[in-house]
Design a protein that fits this description.
The chain is α+β, with helices and mostly antiparallel strands. 17% of the residues lie in helices and 28% in strands.
Length: 925
Amino acid sequence: MHVARGDIRGGAVSNPVIGMKLFAIAAIAALALTAMMTCTSAGNADKAPSQGNLLVISEALFDPVGTETEGEFVELVCASNRSASIGGWTLTDQDGPIEITFPNMTLAPGELVVVWTGAGTNQTSRSPYEFHIGRTTSVWNNPGDDVLLLNSTGNVSDYICYGNGSAVDPCPAPGSWPNISALPKEGISLALKSDDAWGFSVPTPGARNPEPAKISSALITEVSYDPGKGSEYVKVVSNSTKPLNLYGWAIADDSGVLAFPRNATLSPGEALTMAENATRFNISFGRLPDITWGNMTTIEAGFRLANAGDEVFLLDPWGAKVDAYAYGDSNYQGEGWLGEPVPVLRPGKVSMRAIDCGKYADTDSARDWDKTPVSAPIFGNNTSVAFTAANLTYYAFPDAGFQAVESLIYEARSSISLNVYELSSPLAAAALARAAGRVGIRVLSEGKPVSGLVGSSVECFDAITEAGGSVRLAINDTFDYNHAKYMVIDNRTLFLSTENWGASGLPAAGMSGNRGWAVAVRDANLSSYFMRVFESDWNSSIPWNASRGSVKISSEETPLMSKRARPLFPPMNSTESARVTPVLAPDNALSQETILGMLGGARRMIMVEEFYVHAKWGSSAYGGASETNPFVDALVAAARRGCEVRVLLDSTYYNVESGDKNDNDDAVRYLNTLAALEGLKIQAKLVQLEAHDFVKIHAKGVIVDESSVLVSSINWNRNSVMDNREAGLIVESGEAARYFARVFEYDWRDDFSPPVPEIRVEGTPCVGTTICFLGNGSRDDAGIRDYSWQIDGVNASSKAPTIEWVFSTPGEHEVTLNVTDGWGNANSTSISLELTNVTAETPEMQTSAQSSPTTVSNGTGASGVGAEGIWGASPVLMYILALPGVAVLAFWLIGRGRKGGRGKDIPSRRSEPVERDESSSAELE
C-alpha cells in the first residue's frame, strides 16, 4: 500500500484543497441519482473544426470548504488521441476579463491541467500542469455560473454551466452544451464521467476522474469503535484483481466523511488501516496505522463511531456505497447492507469480517461478520508477522522431561526472561537460581491462579529472588490470567511450551507427567519479537516482594511424580527452514491470519490434541451458549471440504463432569453426532490416560496436512482467546508435522495390551480325517481384528477364526494361530498334534470323534499337546480300548510322544469356518 502523507495533491503542488466538506451521507446517493445529468457535447459543426475536442473541462470545484479561493479549481484534460498545443487558449466565466491565457505548451493525450483560483507557483514541467490565477476573491459563484474554454482563435472548445444564478451566461456557440441545474454540497466537485455524463464527486484535482467502482472491489474487514485505551480504526482490503487507487474514495458514518489522500493505492488483497490516533494504535498493535484520520481530507466533519451503534460506509468518489457495516442500534437499510445490524460489542473488542473457504464473506449482512469478535490487542499485530528460522528443536513431554529445559537454561550467557502461568517445580527454581549467579533472570508469573498460589510456588519465587533474580506477578486488569508459557534466552532463543513449570509439566528424568508439546527456535528476530511482548507485560506487573503479603496462598499442593515412564519420543533437532508465525491472545488468536486461517487452509487432514474444548462459547451479544466455538466450526468446515479430522481430548475427571454440559465429553459427543448425521470424516474421543500413564493431556496442539503445527498455551474456550495472555507458534515445517503426528498417533491409541490367542481342536487326530481348529475363543479388550493360520510353518488359505484341515501324513504337526487386535497389538500361539495312520472307518468312530473338542492354549505363545491332551478324546480312546488286541498298540502309540515324522498334508476342500463367534469381533470407534 502506497500512501502520500500530507498534501492531498502530493508532489510539488503548493495550493492544497483544504477541509473540503461533503454532503450528509443520507443525501449522497439521492443527489448522485437525481442531479447527475447525461449531457451530450455539441457536434463538430458547433465548434471550431480545426480544434475540435482537443481540450475539455473534466472537473470543477466552485464551493470548497473554508476560504473560497484556496480550494476553487477547474481541471482540463487533453481528450484527443493526438498531442494538442494550447498556447493562447483561455479560460473564463464570461462575467469579467479573461481569467487565464495559457502559454505555448503541448499536451499529450490524457494529460491534465489544473487552474487554481488563488495564488501559488505554476508548475509546467510535467502533468498535471498547474496554473494559479492569483485572485483574492472567487471566480466561480456558488449559486450558479459557467465555465468557458476558448481555443487560440477564440472559438468555443468546451462549456458547462451549473445552478441557476444570475452569473449563468449562455454559451456563445449554439449547441447542446451541458447545463447542470442541481448543485452539489459544499466540498463536492462536478466531474465528467467516462460516459460523458456529469456527476458529483469527491474532488480529485490533477488525477483522472475514476471509473465508478465495481461493487465489492474493496471491503471493510475490521472495525474498532469502542477500543478502551486503544484507538478507533477501520480496515479496508482490496478485493480487486488489479491495483486499486483509492484517491477520492472515502469512509463515512452517519455524520462525517473522510477522503483518502493521493497515492493511496492497494495491490490485490492488500489492506489499509485508518486509525483515529496513531500513538494509541501503535501501543495496541506495535506498529503505526497506514493513515490517521487527520491525514485524510475532511469532506464533512464529525466522523466518529458511536459505541451504541452506527454505520461505516466505504464510498467511491461518486458517492456510491461500495461496502457497508451496521452495528448496535443502527437502523440503516440500503445500499451495501440488508437485515439486522451486528450486535454491539463489549468494550475493547474488534469486529472482524468472516472468511469462508479462503474468501471474505460478502452477503451485505450481519452473517458476514465473525460471531466471536477479537479483543483489541495489548501488544502485537492483528495482521500477523512471520519469521523464517532454520534451527529448531521439537519436544514431547513427559518424554523430554525437565532435563530439556535445564539444558536450555544452562546455555544462557546473558539473560533469561521467563513468562509462565505456574512455576512450582523445585527443580526448575533451583536451575534458575543457579543461573542467576551468572546471567540476568526475570520471571513473570500469574499472581492469581484459579486456586491461588501453591506453597511450592512461593518457595520457588523466594529461591530465585534470594539468588539475585527478579520475579514479578501479573495482577492487573489487562488480562484475566497470564497463561503464557515461554522463555527467551539471550535474546536469540525462544522456548515455547504448552506446559506449566510444575512437577507434572516438567517431570524429572524417567518419570511420568502430562502429555505436552514444545518447540525451541534459535532465531534472533523471533526472540526479539517475544522480548517486546515480555517487556510490555513485565512493565504492567507487580514485584514479588511488593505483592507477597497480598496474594492468595492455596492449601493445595502440587504432588511430586512417583510413577516411572519409558521415554518414547526424544527431542528432535531440525535444520529444515520453517516459517514461524507468533500467535498471541488476545491480540491475534482469533485472526483469520493465524489459527483460523491455518484450519481454513487444510485440504487433507487435521489432528487436534487439546486439554479441553468447549463446543459452545456463548456470548450475551450473540445469543448465549448456543453459539459454537469458531475453532470447532473451522474443523467442521474442513470436514465438509473432505478433510479427515481427528480430535483427542483430555479425560481427567474435571473435564468430563456429568453436571457440566459443555466440557470435553460434550464436545466429543457434538462432533461425533454431527459426523454421523452428515457422513463427515470426523472422529473425536477422550484419551485413555491409564493406557499411556499420563497425568493428563495438557497439550494444546494442531497438525494440518503434514505441513504445519500449532504449539500454544491456548485452550479452546472463549476466555482463553478473548481475555487471557496466551502465546503460541504456528510452525510450517514437514519435519515438525511428522514429529508431532507420531506423538499424536501414539496418544490416539486406546490399547497397548496384546490379545490372548487360544486354539481348540475338534476332530480325530488321524490321517485322512477332517480336523477343525477353532480360534474364536481368543480374547482382547478391544476385540480381535485379524486371524491368520499356519500349518507346519506354511500360511493356510483361511483368515477366519476357524479352519478345517485334512492331514495326509502321520507324525507330528504344528498349528499356529496369529491374532491382531484393533490397535495393531499382535500375539500368537501354537499346538502340536501327533497323527496316526488309524482312520475313522466306521460312522460310529467319526461321530464320536466330533463330539468332544480338545482345547490347547497357554495364552501367550507356543502350546504343546501331551498325553493329557490326547486322552482328552475319551470316546475315541474308550472305543479303541474295547477292541480285542488293540490296547497294547494304543499304549505304544501314546508312548511314541514327539517322535512321529512329518508327511505331506492335504488341506480339506472346505476351509470356511464351521461357526463364527461374532462376540470376538469389535469395530473401532
